[in-house]
Design brief:
This protein is of the alpha+beta class. The chain has two helices and five strands, in the order αββαβββ. The protein has helices spanning 41-46, 78-85; strands spanning 63-67, 73-76, 89-90, 100-103, 110-117. The chain has a five-stranded antiparallel sheet.
């Protein structure tokens, strides 16, 4: 582009170039997180660990399986419990405590578990 007289390249008028924009330094850059870091945010999104199940969280008709091997408590629906219980062995009077031999829903091993139906 040339100026109106055709003598050469057009120069910006004083005060209209980018020199009036203040330069940005690393210290003056805005940050995304000004507050404290979220300690559980990313871990909660990408973790595979299930939280511990409180005893009173099982609803009516739910089946609570307590594993004797891994110690995990799992709340199941009755249909899920039937799928896990086939095949299984239940000896509640001969083996008190963990009286059922079946697959644990948490560790997926065949072991002695305690099965309770919430009424």
């Amino acid at each position: 582009m040339t100026d109106s007289q055709g003598s050469g390249p057009r120069r910006p008028k004083p005060g209209t170039d980018f020199s009036r924009i203040p330069s940005v330094t690393a210290d003056s850059r805005p940050t995304l997180h000004d507050g404290p870091a979220d300690q559980d945010g990313r871990r909660a999104l990408f973790s595979t660990n299930r939280p511990q199940v409180p005893e009173d969280s099982a609803s009516f008709g739910a089946v609570v399986v307590d594993c004797g091997r891994c110690g995990e408590r799992t709340v199941l629906t009755p249909s899920q419990a039937v799928q896990l219980a086939l095949p299984s062995l239940h000896l509640p009077f001969l083996k008190p405590g963990h009286g059922s031999w079946m697959r644990c829903p948490s560790c997926h091993h065949r072991t002695w578990v305690s099965v309770q139906i919430q009424l």
